[in-house]
Design a protein that fits this description.
By secondary structure, the protein is of the alpha/beta class. Helices cover 33% and strands 20% of the residues. The chain is built from 5 helices and 7 strands. It has helices at residues 31-39, 43-49, 89-104, 120-134, 149-158, and strands spanning 2-6, 17-22, 60-64, 73-78, 108-111, 142-146, 167-170. A hairpin with an 8-residue loop joins strand 3 (60-64) and strand 4 (73-78). Helix 3 (89-104) packs parallel to helix 4. The longest helix is centred in the middle third of the chain and has 16 residues, at 89-104.
């Protein structure tokens, strides 16, 4: 199991599948979704404007990378209204993430957890939760966490031990 932390631009991260998450009603897009929308010439904004994707809980939108991203496919997951999203929902998001990878036969994927959680402490706990769930999915060889530089520095500084089965890499 290889866990890679990176702060590279989202369109520069090479992965079989890129999972991005969106809270309903949060437009215009910012951060990672803003970059995605910009790279695909506003197509995501048009989907939202036409109510083809709203970000409702468990709503999905799968798009090819189209050579605009190094990821082969981009999967957008709706999380519902931010105010209704609780910390324990992170477990459900991670279950969905791993189940989707397994169904697609993917061995490697990228996601970001920082936009889900308000504090670094909760983010670190979410990373630990990701690893504990990952052990049930042996076919998935690599998970790439695309996170802000400050969170990656913190993980490196703390020298957190994620277990002997996890190989950590920083990009």
């Amino acid at each position: 199991m290889k866990l890679t932390f990176t702060s590279q631009d989202i369109d520069k991260v090479s992965a079989e599948l890129m999972l991005l998450m969106h809270f309903e009603g949060e437009v215009p897009f910012k951060d990672l979704l803003g970059k995605l929308d910009w790279r695909i010439n506003g197509r995501l904004s048009r989907y939202v404007k036409k109510n083809q994707f709203r970000g409702q809980a468990r709503e999905l939108l799968l798009m090819p990378g189209e050579n605009r991203f190094k990821a082969q496919e981009v999967l957008l997951l709706g999380l519902g209204v931010r105010e209704n999203f609780q910390q324990d929902h992170v477990s459900q998001v991670l279950d969905f993430f791993f189940q989707t990878l397994q169904k697609k036969g993917a061995t490697q994927a990228c996601l970001s957890l920082y936009s889900l959680l308000p504090s670094e402490f909760e983010w670190r706990n979410a990373v630990r939760l990701l690893i504990s769930k990952w052990t049930d999915y042996k076919s998935i060889q690599e998970v790439i966490l695309r996170e802000p530089v400050n969170l990656i520095r913190d993980i490196k500084r703390r020298q957190i031990d994620f277990g002997h089965q996890v190989r950590i890499e920083y990009q």
